[in-house]
Amino acid sequence: MVSKIDSSSIVISQIGFAAAYIVFTSENLRAFTANVSSYDVTDINIVWFILLQVVIIVPLSLIRDITKLSLSAVFANVFILTGLVTIVYFMLYQWLGVNHGIGLIIPIQESMIHPNNFPRVLGQVILTIAVIMIMVGSLGYLTFGDKIKTVVLLNLPQDSPMVIITQLLYSLAILLSTPLQLFSPLDYWNRK
What we know:
It is found in: Membrane. The chain has 192 residues and is mainly α. The protein has one domain. The chain has helices spanning 2-36, 46-61, 70-96, 105-111, 118-144, 161-181, 183-191. Helix 1 packs across helix 2 (46-61), helix 1 packs antiparallel against helix 6 and helix 3 packs antiparallel against helix 6.
């Protein structure tokens, strides 16, 4: 009974995180489209941006070997790092001027060559992410104050090629990493 409750809560949380990612990516894609075209994107229903992602996410989510998702995860990480560098660059320039991965712990540990190293690797990853989040969050607040937007990219100059590329890269990064978020719920569902 308890394991079913645990598994169900992981499934629900991972699907919720994936839904939040899809909404975030839709907003980013809308901003990207507005920046690269003369079309008024307010006329485009956000549902179209969501459907575009579903066409990509569904086939990738059907991959049942987590190691085969590693290439898309590497691309996603490179895109996110590029985005972080861009965000920090603009914040520094202007300033001078949930644990949503919890459902992936077991599949990642099981796919490792040396699973016994997992606690050490996890600790290093959590520390690194915490430092980056504190740094970027603090820098964002110091730069924009209470005018900071939920998607900090929207605070950056919307006509900058770096920002426009970053909007696209972040959207692609989340799009490519969403199947990894859905791996555990789909794996649980397939075992039923």
